[in-house]
Specification:
408 residues, alpha/beta, TIM Barrel, ten-stranded mixed beta sheet, two-stranded antiparallel ribbon, 17 helices, globular, disordered N terminus
């Protein structure tokens, strides 16, 4: 992890002397990156006096304001749930989720056929994490969108089902398996010829143009963007309607923080089929720095999901100087101990949000991480965000020479 020296005059005594100064909140918020890095190397006294102020500045809320938290009621710690509403902070579950006449409503930013997943994606506003690297922060941490009921989601699902061109079995209700049938290059439509990486499975009549490019439409509807699975009722009621009225599978892309045993059981009973679990880091301190939350529950989720019969895939980002080969090897080892066939995608990080001063990984670094994960005995490993780390013909040639076919 990157560190830096504490600026002169900004030490523990300076903070302690001003811990009740109302201007300190603004100071810490404006310089949250520097303060949080000092947080990693600072003293216990510094952490103790700043904890609540940092929580506010990073998008969390004071403990008293989380008294009605669903996670807290189940005996778990609330997430880093703050979202901006008209320039002020509010809880995501209050700002982007509501009930009217007993019906749940969720704030949805957009709904469309996404690539390269090749399924209907429902982009949600509001999240229980405050990820520094989030590429969707402008709607996941800022209130934005239109209110949808489960009936509205069903309407979108029915309309989408009319255009499905690829019907997958339940065990392939994942983003991972989209790669098996199409690489979304559009060559078969635009040039009437297949690219050198085409799986050569689908005909061009199965390929549709969506806002994010070419590919098939698979029989899957997925929740993505922000994550409020800590309040599972909206997801559950959507799943019940979609499963009763369509032939679509229901997938939730998730950080896992809200998936308590009780919530997992409820979602299973409601008809949710699959999870795409994003494990941000194995090391708890790195995970807390990245997201504002702990990961002790998240690391147990693969086993709990597989035990309940959900289809599961896992992804993690390679972030140079933070989440590198050693971290990714540990995550792969945990997955292998649950089930060696769990699909695991290592995605290349790209600079975004509060981490624009971090660089993307190189091709050599991604290949090294691939082999380290494979050495654990995990069978299904893939490298993603190819355009981020393999930008030249030389990079691509190195990748193809050093990674198994189909693993990128």
């Amino acid at each position: 992890m990157k560190t830096q020296e504490t600026p002169r005059g900004f030490g523990v005594q300076w903070i302690l002397a001003r811990k009740t100064d109302p201007n300190l909140i603004g100071i810490l918020f404006n310089f949250q990156n520097q303060v949080d890095r000092m947080f990693e190397i600072g003293s216990a006294a510094f952490r103790s006096c700043c904890e609540e102020l940092i929580d506010k500045g990073r998008g969390g809320m004071a403990k008293s304001e989380k008294a009605d938290c669903h996670l807290k009621k189940q005996g778990f710690t609330p997430g880093s749930c703050g979202v901006k509403v008209d320039g002020k902070q509010n809880l995501a579950c209050q700002a982007t989720l509501k009930r009217i006449d007993g019906r749940p409503h969720r704030l949805i930013t957009s709904v469309h056929l996404s690539r390269p997943e090749n399924y209907l994606s429902i982009y949600q506003s509001g999240c229980n994490f405050s990820c520094r690297k989030c590429h969707s922060w402008y709607f996941s941490k800022v209130k934005d969108g239109i209110w949808y009921t489960p009936a509205d989601i069903l309407h979108k699902a029915r309309e989408y089902e009319k255009n499905v061109t690829l019907w997958e079995p339940r065990e392939k209700a994942t983003a991972w398996h989209a790669h098996d049938t199409c690489r979304c290059c559009g060559a078969c439509v635009l040039h009437r010829t297949r690219s050198r990486i085409c799986p050569d499975i689908l005909d061009s009549e199965s390929i549709l143009l969506s806002p994010q490019g070419f590919g098939p439409a698979r029989n899957i509807v997925a929740f993505t963007g922000g994550d409020l699975t800590c309040c599972p009722e909206f997801y559950g009621e959507c799943a019940q309607l979609v499963k009763a009225n369509t032939k679509l599978w229901m997938l939730i892309e998730t950080n896992g923080y809200g998936l308590t045993p009780e919530n997992l059981d409820y979602l299973l009973e409601s008809g949710v089929d699959a999870f795409w679990l994003d494990i941000k880091a194995h090391d708890p301190q790195k995970h807390k720095w990245l997201t504002g939350c702990t990961n002790d529950r998240i690391l147990e989720l693969p086993g709990e999901m597989v035990e309940r019969g959900f289809a599961l895939e896992v992804l993690s980002l390679f972030i140079p100087n933070l989440v590198e080969t050693g971290e990714l090897r540990k995550i792969a080892q945990r997955l292998k101990e649950v089930d060696s066939s769990i699909p695991f995608t290592i995605l290349a990080f790209f600079p975004e949000h509060q981490m624009k001063d971090y660089r993307p990984p190189t091709t050599a670094e991604m290949v090294e991480a691939y082999h380290a994960a494979k050495a654990t005995g995990l069978e299904n490993i893939r490298l993603g965000n190819l355009g981020i780390f393999a930008k030249t013909e030389r990079d691509l040639a190195y990748l193809m020479a050093n990674v198994d076919k189909g693993a990128y």
